[in-house]
Amino acid sequence: MNPRFPFIAAPLLTLAYGVIRILDGLDGSRGPGLAWTTGHLAFMAALVLFAVTFWQMRRIAGGGRLATVSAVAGIAGIVGLLAQFGIDIVVGFMSADHAAMGALFAQVQAVPVVPFVIYTGTPLLFYVAQVVIVSRLAVLGRVQWWTPVLVLVDMALPLVDKDFIPLGALCLLVSFVPLARQAAAPVVKREVALV
Fold first, then answer.
1. What's the CA gap between 99 and 187, in Å, rounded?
2. Rounded CA gap, 103 and 44, in Å?
3. Does position 166 have pLDDT exceeding 70, yes or no?
4. pLDDT in tens, 5-39
5. 64-94, pLDDT tens digit by residue?
6. Would residue 105 be called left, alpha or beta, if left means φ above 0 and alpha means ψ between -120 and 50 degrees?
7. Which ranges constitute the DSSP H helices of the chain?
8. What is the rounded distance in angstroms from the CA atom of residue 100 to the CA atom of residue 50?
9. Among 19, 122, 161, 182, which is most exposed with the fewest C-beta within 10 angstroms?
10. Contact criterion met (CB below 8 Å) for 134 and 148
11. Quick one: residue 62, left, alpha or beta (phi over 0 = left, psi -120 to 50 = alpha)?
12. Where does residue 97 fall: left (phi above 0), alpha (psi -120 to 50 degrees), or beta otherwise?
C-alpha cells in the first residue's frame, strides 16, 4: 500500500460516512437499511486506515515514548469504535425498523461495562491520541501549527451537530495532506524536549 493512501482515504471515507448519515436521516430516522449499513462500513474502513496513519505519524515523529504511547492509545480507541460500529450494523440487521433498533441498543448498553468500553471511554482514546500525536509533530516542526488546530476542529464539529461530520472530515483531509507528503519520505531524527 502506498504510504500516502491512508492519509487521504481515511478522511474521504469519513466524509462519505457523514454524507450517507445525512441522507439516511432525510426520512426522519436513521437505520435500519442500506444507507445505515453502507455508512457504517465506510467509517469502519476509515478506522482501519486511521490505524495505519497512527503508526505512520509515530514514524514521522521519529518514534519515542510520546509518539508510541499516542499511536497505541489511538489504535485502542479504534478497536473500541470498530466494536461500536459493528454492534450498530448487527442491530441494524436484526431490526425491522428504527424503534426496534432502539430496544436492541438499550439491551446492549444495559451490560455493565459496555457503555464505557464501547461507547465512551475507549473510543475517546482515538480522538485524544490523534490530537496529541499531531501536536507532537507540530512541536517537532514536521507539520505547521494549524494542523493540530484543524484536527481539533474536525473533532469539535460533530459535538456541535453530527451533520457537521462531512465538514470536519474536510478539515481533517486538509490537515492530513502534509502528512501524506511526508509519509514516504525518510525521517530525520531531531532531539526536541517534551513539552
1. 52
2. 23
3. yes
4. 999 999 999 999 999 999 999 998 999 999 999 99
5. 999 999 999 999 999 999 999 999 999 999 9
6. alpha
7. 5-24, 34-60, 65-94, 98-109, 114, 121-139, 146-160, 165-183
8. 32
9. 161
10. yes
11. left
12. beta
Grid cell of 34 as nine digits: 442500506
Sorted by where each begins, the domain ranges of the chain are 5-183
Cell, residue 6: 491512508
Whole-number Å distance between alpha carbons of 60 and 137: 8
182 and 25 in contact (C-beta within 8 Å)?
A: no
Distance (Å, whole) CA 146 – CA 165: 19
Task: Return the closest-CA partner of residue 52 out of 24, 86, 11.
Answer: 11
Instruction: Say how far residue 43 (Cα) sits from the centre of its chain.
Output: 8
Report how far residue 90's alpha carbon sits from residue 171's, in angstroms, rounded to the nearest whole number. 31
